## 1
Amino acid sequence: MSVPIKIAVAKGDGIGPEIMDAVLTVFNSVGVPLQYEFIEMGKTYFLEGYGTGMTPKAMKVVEELGILFKGPMETPKGKGMKSINVTARKTWSTYANRRHFQSLPGVDTVFSRAGIPIDITIVRENIEGTYGGVEHMNTHDVTICRRIISRPGSEQVIRFAFEMARKEGFTKVTCAHKANIMKITDGLFLEVFQDIAKEYPDIQSNDIIIDDLAMKLVARPHEFQVVVLTNLQGDIMSDLCAGLVGGLGFAPSANIGDHIAIFEAVHGTAPDIAGKQMANPTSLLLSGLMMMRHLGFVKQAAQIENALRYTLEQGVHTADFGDRSIPFSTTHEFAQSVITNLDKEPEFSKPRIAKDGVPLFIKPLAATHQKMMESTKDKANKVIKGVDLFIESSEPGEAIAATIQPLLSSGQKLVTISNRGTLIWPTGSVFTELVDHSCVRIEQEQGEMTQNEVFELLKKVGKQYMIPSYELLRNFGIKTGYSLTQGQ
Ligand code: NAI
């Protein structure tokens, strides 16, 4: 018998306690070497004034144990209330969100009827992208959101996808992106993917443009195994995949960081059925199996998954799915059926066999200081070639150019003016519609610009226009660090 591992457990709100009790009963029946420390986390603690939705003691327990198994939690409605779930994921740097979508017996879908099995794992970057929530209202009419894609952030999540694939018996990893349009941000994500893929020659790798992925997931889902994506794109594709296998109720989820990992069901607290023993515990049970595999309890996870599949094959179901001619089981009865079938193997649908080996789990560090993410030690020569000034103006390009050009110092050149990324000066079309936010691109004709010269320019232009934001145009060695305007 393995040495027991202690994990933090939060039962959650709404249906959380019912489904968590059902799942832990199943775990206990196979003697999984886990010890549970129940923590104070959820809506009650939020309402008691703990902004993170957990007590300091609960936070300490999670940080010491490194694994949190949680039921769904309600975010009280109202302004300024941040989701407890999102806060936990970000606070503990769980950079990889892993969701598994598989065909399950008894769950009727278009693909199950066509006899096409689905087994797709989405690995979504969980911290950055547009989810940094860095947004500004630049003018009355124009709002912007910064989409942050970092090299270390991309490396973490992409490496996790390959490590997971290798350990759990997948043979192919696909990177989905929009690098044809977002050449710098998604271009970086793709470049990192291609570099890391070289370290895993035993695993096939390819990339696909995100819109093509959306179509192919619907048309030929069985061609995909592991797909790694940036945050928002991953969020959307996850729900698409949930639709392929019968909805969110069957999708387990893990939020993985280097030191802390959170395992939870994808669905919410289902307040409409809470306390009625009607909830389906499958999603939380599958999340628990992901956790067991993460901790290295591969055999026990396979035994429970076989029992679950056999149970579903027998037509056992809760009220939310399955054959209506068969009476539905309560949450507790459903768990008991899985327990009764622990010595059974499914006839028609075997789970994928994960390789035995070193668990992915890495022990939590004693957190004595804030962790710096590894810098890539870039030695490239960085130069400022110019600046993009975003000005508030409703004038056409010619009028803006006539105001700006006399303000430039010798050697500085007005290169382009664009509006929502489309060129409006020196060439353009009267059919291009304008908003009150234009980008004036000024470059140094020879050599480079200093930061002070940029500030001088800002001062001069600032006397004529409001400049709600600006971006330096920098080159990093041979890499141009800014995009061209559409039409340039
Ligand atoms: P929900 O997922 O709780 O419910 C949507 C519908 O699905 C309801 O009809 C519900 O009865 C049904 N449903 C959900 N899980 C089920 C299960 N296991 N078995 C049977 N039926 C199930 O989504 P909703 O109503 O939008 O959110 C309710 C609360 O949950 C909100 O406070 C929300 O913030 C929270 N939430 C928490 C999440 C988490 O803890 N990770 C994720 C999503 C929502």
Note: Residues 15, 72-75, 85, 249, 264, 267-273, 279-280, 283, 320 surround NAI (CB under 6 Å).
## 2
Amino acid sequence: MKSMHSKNLIIRVLIIQCLAVVCFAQEFDFFYFSLQWPGSYCDLKRSCCYPSTGKPASDFGIHGLWPNYIDGSYPSNCDPDSSFNESMISDLRSKMQKEWPTLSCPSANGTEFWGHEWKKHGTCSESVLDQHDYFATTLNLKSQVNLLQTLANAGIYPDGEFYSLESIKGAIKQGTGYTPHIECNVNAWGNSQLYEVYMCVDTSGSNLIKCPIFPRERCKSQIQFPSFSNVETPSFLSAI
Ligand code: AMP
């Protein structure tokens, strides 16, 4: 009789443990929040096209909010049934156009870029952030980081000058409390340029955290912060 009771108890404990694994399994460990400098995107050897709504402001734009694992790998395209539905974010549309501008060619209204980010990355954090919250949370992070101002506070401006990679990282640590990862691109003249800034964010999408892991560093020790306001209108746009 006693052994029957203990068997039942063991079975119950096992069921509870299984439920805990299924219900609370962590789908990812943290987010990378990525901001992009349009002056560098448009200074690449490949071309850029301004959004159909017009040239973006001279400010960092959002690239994405990407679920990641602490080993550096990341999940992608987690839910093929969850398509991007613009009507769910209609209240965010004008802010998205300003803060998350599409720059690929041909010129577009942003839907394709945002849809790509949702399908590839957003669907992998769907248990935490639904489609509306995913975009609203990402927009909030942009205001929280206030990157252009943070760099300006340290005397770092998009003026075409070269700055040390360490001074850029130091300025961002000073302003936000956390060291970022910097991605660089190489322009047509071979200059290493400030292209993207990655900050790490907890799984709720609300708080910046210390990065558990950084991608491989590919920038040179001195990098250019190109202007965007002086970027010449791409020839294929001025011809229109
Ligand atoms: P991801 O797949 O999220 O790593 O983003 C990479 C893709 O996003 C590539 O196809 C890029 O060409 C595209 N991409 C990056 N930045 C932009 C941008 N500002 N506008 C449009 N597409 C972009």
Note: The CA atoms of residues 92 and 136 lie 7 Å apart.
